[in-house]
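Side project, low priority. Logging it here so it doesn't get lost.
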Amino acid sequence: MTPPRPVGSETATHRLPDGRTLAFCEFGDPDGDPVFHAHGVPSSRLEGALLHDAACRHGFRVISTDRPGIGRSTYLPGRKFLDYPKDIASLADALGLARFGVMGTSGGGAHTAVCAYALPERLTVNVTVCPFTNFAEFPAPETLLSGAEAVTWRLARISPALVFAMCGSMALAVRGLGTRYEQWAATAATKGQGPDAEVARANPEKMAMMGRVTAEAFAQGGRGVAVDTMIQYSDWGFRLADLRGRIHLFHGTEDKLVPFEFGRYIADHAPNCEFHALEGWGHFITLKSPDLIFETARRELDGQRQGSG
């Protein structure tokens, strides 16, 4: 088995066609099947470290990128969902990967799903976990939002400048608190009740890792996180019925961060989506059982290879 890599080690960069920098880290089995990982919000490329051990066990090479304005990737004004698959395709070309898989969770889930529209001919597998849905289609999606997400939605509707200001303040706090912020981020989710708090308490090492993963999102300030937050409420640029590639979509029925109804809606409207509804599970599916994700991806790939053989 490949030995564990230190979080944040071996960060590399790729120069995109428009001159921007795309930062990424690699985890898992370096000789395994390649899969690009889309991080949550706020999060960063370092999130891939949480998948390292499971990826090694199941033979996957995880390439985890920072989205624009996050970590070390260049900010992109006016970013759209469909910019993500363009960046991934460019990096795949640079790495010599004609075909590859994609996976993402929470704020990265919709970015992963979009690849089934933009890159279906290049995808080997697509595993999307607890995603936001296309707000241009879902009837009154804001009525299902709660907590911080509901507040951010209202601020974005009043003026995006308020979200930029909020995330800018968060960036200043992260910078000022330093390791104290990382410690707070590592323990905040362990408090309270429910399936996610239980998962957090059961995985102290992963939660400790999450502190640094989250702090890295604000490395350039708050504007990248602001866009990463608000894009979740936007039009995907096409309709769910236009998703051509096959998707495995996981969502916990007790998810309190991203409504379960969002995942169900995608599954009901995307023509080639296999929905995995996890009864009693919350949002932290990849923390609780990353093996479940990689086992599904492995079965999908093995089935394709047997079929082509």
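Brief comment: The chain has a mean pLDDT of 94.
Revisit when time allows.
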